[in-house]
Amino acid sequence: MSNIQHNNEVLVKVEGLSKKFCKDLKTSLWYGVKDLVTGIRGGSKDQSLRAKEFWAVKDINFELRRGECLGLIGHNGAGKSTLLKILNGLINPDEGKVTIKGRVGALIELGAGFNPILSGRENIYNNGAILGFSRKEIDSKLETIIAFAELEEFIDMPVQHYSSGMKVRLGFAVAAQMEPDVLIIDEVLAVGDLGFVLKCFKTIDNILPHTAIIFVSHSMPMVSRMCNQIVLMDKGKAKFQGQDVSKAIDLYYNEFTSNNSSDVVFTDNTVELVEASIEGKSKTNNVYKVKWGESIILKFKIKVANLSSIPFVTLAVYDKEQRGVAEMFPSGQNSDLSIVSNEITYAIELKNLYLSKGFYNITFTASEQFGSNAYFKIHKALTIQIDHEKQIWTAFLLDSKVIGLNN
To answer: Where is the ABC transporter domain (predicted)?
Structure first.
């Protein structure tokens, strides 16, 4: 088979996939009995929604070829887990069909597919057999799997005594080193430590040309790092799908803007933040849009009580995964200045904002002096959206250009 044919081979085809569930157990059991009787009599199953039923997945369609990675994103309850369970053969759809070619490796739930009373070594053989490998083939991969999982000392210990991180390492090692045709990865990578996650990404990069990957995650930097096509799910339906991963991520993040209220973390009631804004900009849904590389002036108005000198202000920047990405200790402050009015406004210039595309929250802290005796701290004092055409994995997109090139 030529390389071009190899890469164009459709390994996963999903057509009109739908699955409904019932919110009530008794009603669900009754519907199950009725459907069973209908099936025995040779009648067709009722595909319309009955009382207390809802579509967990509705009319999902996509094709995935060898060498492609499909990102499956959406907020909790969007239908991602149900879709994965259908793809993995754990549950049957009510409508539509799934066609998968070749061996399927799945990392759907932590420890799923492991027998807890068997050792790690025995579970490797079990999983390999399920994937269709002979004992001889598993023997040839065994040491590589154990080494990748970093479990040499614990491989003969029952899996029930493994930590969550050990289970993830073993699960990923089996799924990846067996080199399946289709690899399904759920949120489990979020449990691994950073070193192991980076090792997983390197492995995924290596196997992707020979594999079709379905990757489910709430981490948009991970999705943008891995995926070349995407499905954004909402209430069981595909809200957006295609190759524009960046657009889908923007739509995903937009869901957050309606719930973007500030959060006071600490106060001793001597300082209150009255107003936070960006000079010359208006906000939409509580979000200020800023162009990449732009310089802005942040304005904070506070009200003070029972203080003799002006508080020292520090700022921190967090991404949508609530990871701290930057700190600001604005220069030009003098905490020895006496207070003239009980309302004080700070205008803080932030030069050349090279944060990468996405949403960021700014935390505001007022203290007696730098690093000591905090009066007041508030998360999401300001929310900004950096506008840029490129979606990247890391937190910063630095301004750079080629000034010399010898060929």
So the answer is: 40-260
According to CATH, the superfamily of the domain at 3-256 is P-loop containing nucleotide triphosphate hydrolases (3.40.50.300)
Cβ proximity of 313 and 346 under 8 Å: yes
The CATH number that domain 260-387 falls under is 2.70.50.60
If you count them, how many residues does the chain have? 407
Amino acid at 227: C
Strand partners, 376: 267, 366
- Listing from the earlier edge strand, what are the strands of the sheet with 296-304? 271-278, 296-304, 343-350
10-22 vs 53-65, strand pairing mode: antiparallel
Strand 104-107 to 182-185 pairing: parallel
Closest to 362 (Cα-Cα) out of 404, 403, 319:
319
Under the banding of pLDDT at 50, 70 and 90, the label for residue 2 is very low
Nearest CA-CA partner of 279 in 323, 345, 328, 344: 345
**Burial group, residue 396, by CB count within 10 angstroms (0-12, 13-18, 19+):** exposed
CA distance 78 to 156: 39
C-alpha closest to that of 22 among 60, 49, 46: 49
Q: Whole-angstrom Cα distance, residue 219 to residue 227? A: 12
- 142-199 per-position pLDDT tens digit: 999 999 888 889 999 999 898 888 888 888 888 888 778 888 888 766 666 777 878 8
Least confident of 106-120, 293-307, 388-402: 106-120
pTM of the complete model beyond 0.70: no
Domains of the chain: which residue ranges? 3-256, 260-387
Inter-residue contact 223 to 217 (CB < 8 Å): yes
> Residue 218 is encoded by which pair of tokens?
């709430």
**8 A C-beta contact, residue 87 and residue 15:** no
- Report the C-alpha gap between 271 and 364 in whole angstroms: 12
